[in-house]
Amino acid sequence: MDSDTCEYVTEITKQGNWHGTHPPKFPKWRCPHQPLGLDAEKQYCVFHIDPDKLPDEVDELKALRQALNDAGNSPRDDRPEHRGQFVGAKFGAIHLFGFPIEATEDYDIRFDHARFHGENADLRFVGTKFATSGQYPVSFYGAKFITEGDCDILFDGANFITKGDGDVLFEDAEFITEGDGDVRFKDVEFATEGNGDVRFKDAEFITRGDGDVRFEDAEFDGNTFFEDVDFDATSRFVVSQIERTAMLSFEGADFYEPFFFNVSNDIQDICGDLDFSYATFHDEVDFRSDDDRSTSHSSPAGQCPTFSFNSADSVDFSNTKFIKSVDFSDANFPADTTFDGARLSGANFVEADLSGASLERAQLNRAELLGTKLVGAKLYGALLGNARIDRETRIWPEAQSLRRISGFGKSPVDGGVWRRLRAGWRGGRVPYCCYDPRYWGPSGTACDSERDMQERLEKAAEMYGTVETVARDNSLPRLASECFLGRKDVQLRQYWLKDDDEERQWLMTIQSFIPSLVARYGESPWRVLGTGTFIVLVCGLAYWAFELIERTGETGGSATLLESIYFSSLTFTTLGYGDFRPVNRAGQFLAVAETAMGVILLAILVFVFGRRATR
User: Which SUPFAM superfamilies match (predicted)?
Assistant: First the structure.
């Protein structure tokens, strides 16, 4: 052991004590700092002696500043350690006001498993610059920041910046206040100008008392990751900026106490990517600003109690668990937002805009969806038991102007004149879900193969069935009817496509097509009346064209066209006044067939009117 260096040694291969790159020939990390010579047996440096045992004349902060200034200088030419490494170091109440901690192209800065313990004083990294300008990282892997009493851990005004390939790492770090102190990152900036990231992966934020974890007026100009982090304290993120190229990720994080996330007063929305996938919120979650928490979704026009996600490039809540209900009322989400597999039981989406969002397999039991926009939303496999919707809940695309539908100006409805006419007949509604091949709104996609078509039809049928059930539970017969028709149309399309044996299901296709043609699956009395009128006219033309009927009595003679239609009408309704009769077997057969069809269609008409009346 060199007498001019500290005798602290750690095994690189044990317990993950080292997290940098190193040559395999160096199995141990040897402290590169000068010893103080306080112990006759062990010669430790100022950084590896308990702060309580340091002499009064030893200034730990001054020694740290000097060592950081000498970073990159090594006491041994044959080893990789240098003065900017502090593995396993022990620090007291450090106050690094505005001091730079910067790794370069030539060396790293490493505080792996260091301990910062401010017993009755704050830990202050106010204005400190944690930066990389090359390939090497600034690493606080496994470091512990601990205060007691009412003392805080403060990173106010700090900058976390990567300009090269190196990361700023606080992975597996612990930020703990044993008393009522806060862990505070106020007016901080996270910027990744190179390929490096700022990572707090597997870190822990813990306050034993009434303190909070605060990221107030934080500016995210790059990729910042809080993946698998444990927040065992009330956590408040007040974001002042998220750049469009930035990602703020809480993937897999656990929030054991209330979590508040909102934007500062000078902005209304955020950009960039927000990732809460696989996160678990065990307590209250609030995305409303402090001023807006007192307002409800029924606030006066112009107020927006929840900030807008709409400007974000993407928002990911997939497989997120909200143990308690979450309030997303009045929130606006971008079209590619995903809540796939999320646990959202009891969530409040009143007046929220989820158009184009994906909620596949999401648990939305008891969710409040009053006035929610779900146009183009993917709801395959979603659980909507006891969910609340109303007539203001929008699920289908709608065209606001019937004048535009009818041909004056650019039409908001794709698909030609026939589709425009049908949309106009429905009052501008286009009742197709986003999986339906007929859908034309946001998030609709084309099918590349017949297998893709089968998959989409299956999802469409399931979604129609789910929404139909919710509509019936909330006494919305029109929506329930539209979903029923959509489901039956999709089933007809499925029968028509080839099955696994490459054969169409002709029997099922016919059994499904005829009810749709005659009575729109029992939903349209007009379709029944139209079918009956068509039969009467066709049979009347046949009676007249082929002279199948004649007058009875002394006058005799063939019937005219109007008389043939008159006879056809009486035959269809099974009345028959006896003033006309068939002249041959063909006429008799046609009359019997028309009577049978009349009896059936009249029964169907009674059924349809009864069904509509009992809703």
Answer: Pentapeptide repeat-like, Voltage-gated potassium channels
